[in-house]
Design a protein that fits this description.
Layout: H1 2-26, E1 39-44, H2 52-63, E2 69-73, E3 84-85, H3 92-95, H4 97-105, E4 110-113, H5 117-126, E5 133-137, E6 149-155, E7 183-187, H6 195-204, E8 212-220, E9 223-225, E10 230-232, E11 240-245, H7 251-259, E12 263-268, H8 277-287, E13 291-295, H9 296-302, E14 311-315, E15 317-321, H10 324-339
Parallel strand pairs: 1-5, 1-6, 2-4, 2-5, 6-7, 7-8, 11-12, 11-13, 13-14
Antiparallel strand pairs: 3-4, 8-15, 9-10
Helix pairs in contact: 4-9
């Protein structure tokens, strides 16, 4: 509490800087670029952990069977510079873990990385003649592009109305930034949210007339995977294993295993952690030639780095709305929005 109080002046300065920047964009003093193709931006107000990756994957699955899709990401922590369309010659270190995960998982889409979002979209457009749907990863504060549809994510446990601006809290901009969103999704919700609780969120999130509110949850799969195998989760019963995470909020994964009464140890690293030689040694020592279970995002960074005696698996994760009515409403809104660009 005292530390938060001491950091408050810095938070206020940061808030003013971001507030002034947003004013410049809102008044068009700083120009933003719009495009003639559907561009869906997925982002948040906070620093990570809201489920952007699984939301992007959900939208990819919604369209990819019959509609060309391209994902554009900054590629956090990548070593490769400039604009790049990801190919099989790349890896997570070169292009970033999340973009590389999308590329490996969805063969029918294009995935590109570029710090300059406007340049990235233009490059993608120039390299393909047919219309695509573009998904912008972590786009909310990158205002040089004006998405045709903006989706804002916030978690059930720590919604932005309970949070504070950096460095006091985890918000990258003030709560009023939520007004730019067309859809607000409360992620990582429990299986059931009462009408009373929904209304409470509706009021506290300050939902505007042009916005729609949804509630969703994350669902861990009933299997674990590596590049060659798919094994039922029951395989882990009565086995000791090590769970390694380098994501923003790993507690949901730990709870999943705890609820199943599994016996496991933990190694927690920072979000987007680049596993060093030293950290690999630490993991190897703690794993003691046993199983290592990790997230899909971590798997693309750890694959091939551990001793061959250690079996490395990841557990898939998906996004799910709380009921079929909510899911259909979301799908119809997205499909209807994108179909308008075909007219």
């Amino acid at each position: 509490m005292w530390l938060r109080f001491l950091l408050f002046p810095f938070g206020f300065i940061y808030y003013l800087i971001i507030y002034c920047r947003n004013i410049l964009f809102d008044t068009n003093i700083i120009k933003h670029t719009s495009f003639s193709d559907p561009i869906i931006g997925i982002g948040n107000l906070s620093v990570g952990g809201t489920g952007k990756s699984v939301m992007i994957e959900y939208i990819i699955r919604l369209f990819s069977s019959n509609t060309p899709i391209a994902v554009l990401s900054r590629g956090y922590g990548r070593t490769l510079k400039g604009f790049n369309i990801i190919t099989h010659s790349h890896n997570a270190k070169l292009v970033g873990d999340e973009p590389f995960q999308f590329f490996r998982k969805f063969k029918a889409i294009r995935v590109a990385v570029c710090n300059n979002r406007v340049l990235g979209i233009k490059e993608l457009q120039s390299s393909r003649s047919e219309r695509e749907i573009y998904l912008l990863d972590d786009s909310f504060q990158h205002r040089s592009i004006k998405p045709s549809l903006s989706i804002l994510l916030t978690t059930y446990k720590t919604p932005y109305f309970k949070d504070w601006i950096l460095p006091v809290g985890n918000l990258r901009e003030g709560r009023s930034g939520s007004k730019r969103a067309d859809m607000i999704i409360v992620t990582k919700s429990p299986d059931y949210v009462s009408d009373e609780k929904r209304m409470d969120f509706f009021k506290k999130l300050n939902i505007q007339p042009h916005q729609k509110l949804f509630f969703s949850k994350i669902v861990y799969d009933s299997v674990i995977k590596d590049e060659n195998q798919v094994i039922d989760i029951s395989y882990l019963k009565n086995k000791e294993f090590l769970v390694v995470t380098g994501i923003a909020k790993p507690e949901y994964l730990f709870k999943y295993f705890e609820d199943k009464k599994f016996t496991f140890n933990k190694m927690i690293f920072p979000d987007h952690y680049k596993y060093s030689t030293n950290s690999i040694k630490q993991i190897t020592k703690k794993a003691n030639n046993k199983l290592v279970i990790t997230t899909e995002k971590d798997y693309v960074r750890l694959e091939g780095k551990l001793n061959t005696d250690i079996k490395l698996f990841y557990i898939p994760i998906t996004h799910s709305f709380l009921n079929l009515k909510e899911e259909n409403l979301f799908k119809n809104e997205i499909i209807q929005h994108c179909s308008e660009f075909e007219k």
